[in-house]
Amino acid sequence: MIFKKLDAYLASRFIKMIIVSVTSFVVIFVSVDAFDHFTRWVDKDVSIGAFLTYYFYGLPYIIVLVLPIAVLLSSLFLISSLSRKNELVAMRTAGISIPRIILPLLIVGGLTSVFELGVGDFIVANATYQQTLVK
């Protein structure tokens, strides 16, 4: 019973960190790209709607691009946070091995990889085509 609660706890914290990381990376990516192309947008007198549509269609590609590093950093931050708050010590004292503690992270990481594969194969190509039409 303890393992199910522990797995859910670790997985939920990991997923929250992944969402925050992906959101942060997407905001940074879009901000840098928008500032990089700002003069082109102004010279062509592009409307706000076209600007937002362009980046809306670019989101799947950006997410596929930043998701692996977000998962990696989230796993490092989660393990660091568990260690800093002595939760890792408590789990080890309870007799739970390190591989068993990391198992929920591996499962969520694997599911994230499957999600990324699906998005990359089925959504990114069409979204990129739509993005070039807006451009």
List the helices and strands and how they pair.
Layout: H1 2-36, H2 38-43, H3 48-84, H4 87-93, H5 98-122, H6 124-134
Helix pairs in contact: 1-3, 1-5, 3-5, 3-6
In words, what does this structure look like?
The chain has 6 helices and no strands. It is mainly alpha-helical and 135 residues long. It has one domain. Helix 3 runs antiparallel to helix 5. It is elongated, with a radius of gyration of 19 Å. The N and C termini lie far apart (54 Å). The model has no long low-confidence stretch (mean pLDDT 92).
Question: What is the structure about, briefly put?
Answer:
By secondary structure, the protein is mainly alpha-helical. It has helices spanning 2-36, 38-43, 48-84, 87-93, 98-122, 124-134.
Low-confidence stretches: none
Overall spatial form: elongated
Roughly what fraction of the amino acids lie in strands? under 5%
SSE order, one letter for each helix or strand: HHHHHH
Largest sheet: none
CA-atom Rg in angstroms: 19 Å
Beta-strand segment tally: 0
Helix/strand-derived category reads mainly alpha
Count the domains: 1
Query: What portion of residues is helical?
Result: over 70%
Q: What is the distance, rounded to the nearest whole angstrom, between the alpha carbons of the first and last residues? A: 54 Å
The whole-number mean of residue pLDDT values reads: 92
The count of helical stretches stands at 6
